[in-house]
Amino acid sequence: MAADLTDTIDDLRERARRWLDDDPDPASREELQAVLDRLPESGPELADRFAGPLTFGTAGLRGPLRAGPNGMNLAVVTQAAAGLVTWLAAEGATGPLVIGYDARRGSKEFAERTAEVATGAGRAAMLLPRPLPTPVLAYAVRHLDAAAGVMVTASHNPPEDNGYKVYLGARLGGETGAGAQIVPPADRGIEAAIRAVGPLAEVPLGPPGEVLGDDLAVAYVKQAAEVVDPNGPRGLRVAYTPLHGVGAAVLTAAFSRAGFGVPGVVPDQAEPDGTFPTVSFPNPEEPGAVDRLVALAESTRADLAIANDPDADRCAVVVPDPAAGGWRMLRGDEVGVLLADHLMRRGVRGLYATTIVSSALLRAMCTARDLPYDETLTGFKWIVRAGDGSAPLVFGYEEALGYCVAPEHVRDKDGITAALTVAELAAGLKAEGRTLTDRLDELAAEFGVHHTDQYSVRVTDLRLIADAMARVRAATPTTLLGRPVTETRDLLPEADVVILRTDTARVVIRPSGTEPKLKAYLEVVQPVAEGDVAAARERAGTAVAALRTEIAAALGL
């Protein structure tokens, strides 16, 4: 056994030394050398750093900032950029590579290195002028007719992470995928090209590329403001936080241009800061993340509170909850159906889409209103490609706070235009003496209460997720809440997803594509009897709580 351990450490040491010889970043080399110097105590850490290369997943590359192939660092980014531009050339894609970045540690440096690799390969590179929201990069790919786009961001991941998202232009993405995130087989092609990159010292680096001016962000803001009706009510007081991300300047400019009052911004979360000092986890959905936003909303007597995640592609909505004596965050499904209903009432006809883990309410609304509907696998890369082409996509959402209210503007989730559209709806309702929660009650009275929740488990050992998925497949529940399971779907090999349905409930179980989490999405539908929405909500809430307990037991986590 001792000999085996020595052999393993010797192998890791040799792999690390080869990595050090090829790493272009002195700081990264110093970091890895420090790990080597602590062997054998640092053996598990070194093994994790060399457990395998980061691969293109749901959102391109994403991982912890650290030296080694299983992390985000200058060497990994150089290799990824070289593979990407090689693949673009092999596919015959013409046009520039547009590159954006957020305010996380390393983002600007990774963006600049990507530009140097692109120009070194003979392709024009355009850098956004400063840290800007992901929707601005997605917009730029279409606006500038680029071959592709890269956004350096880890979205709402922990501060120690970073990531690398790839968008395709019209030439490779086609009509529905122009300015959208990559899907198969592009991801596999790029991954293969990345693995084929030789020594990094042989990757040619060119000039830094063109740094774009502010006119691009101005153009984005102009089109974003045009998403809402210019003649609608504007009497609304809004509190806002970008959660130390890059959304504040763009969102406040868009609100101002659209004729709304400029939202009040949480002061100590207003400026971009990749350390996210006031939140334990920079995701609006996490407990405590919007506490400062709620405090600002209360002190300013706001009608509505809005949070973006750090790269501003998601939008959280927090509303007064008089019954509870405070404020509550609307679920992603609630915001999704509010936005869809609002667009439908504005006469926007076309395809409405969501994902297999979202509420069934959107389907019911589309059926009743004779509108095309589709649902896809999770991720906006699938949502924006929904349908069979017979009707244009006009709205898509996913329950994880992602909304696309103007697919012709940004072919991805967009927290800026979503916030504007929520504000438009809230202002219109306020002018009538009503609120967003009033409108939710009206939808419940018409279609039944669709109560959704999530059972989510974060793990440090990914084998626990695999074991749980195997467990639920081997012993699939035959009843839920005492009612027979009428449909069981296993989406393998296309996706690692198990779906269970009864006549009144639905459960969708899947591993997260961006975090070490196992997620179970729960839904219970309760009809409203004699107009008593509150009673139906209470019954649905009790049923979902019981469903959580059943699913937790089935998963064994």
CATH C-level class of the largest domain: Alpha Beta
CATH topology (fold) name of the largest domain: Alpha-D-Glucose-1,6-Bisphosphate, Chain A, domain 3
Query: How many structural domains in the coordinates?
Result: 4
Shape: globular
> Which residues form runs of ≥5 with pLDDT under 50?
none
Distance between the termini: 32 Å
Q: What percent strand?
A: 15-25%
Average of per-residue pLDDT values: 95
The radius of gyration is 24 Å
Instruction: Classify the helix fraction into a percent range.
Output: 25-40%
| CATH architecture label of the largest domain | 3-Layer(aba) Sandwich
Q: Sheet bearing the most strands, described?
A: 7 strands, mixed
Alpha-beta classification: alpha/beta
Give me the number of helical elements. Answer: 18
Name given to the CATH homologous superfamily of the largest domain: Alpha-D-Glucose-1,6-Bisphosphate, subunit A, domain 3
Number of strands: 23
Organism: Micromonospora echinospora (Micromonospora purpurea)
Family: Belongs to the phosphohexose mutase family.
Pfam families: PGM_PMM_I, PGM_PMM_II, PGM_PMM_III, PGM_PMM_IV
Cofactor: Mg(2+)
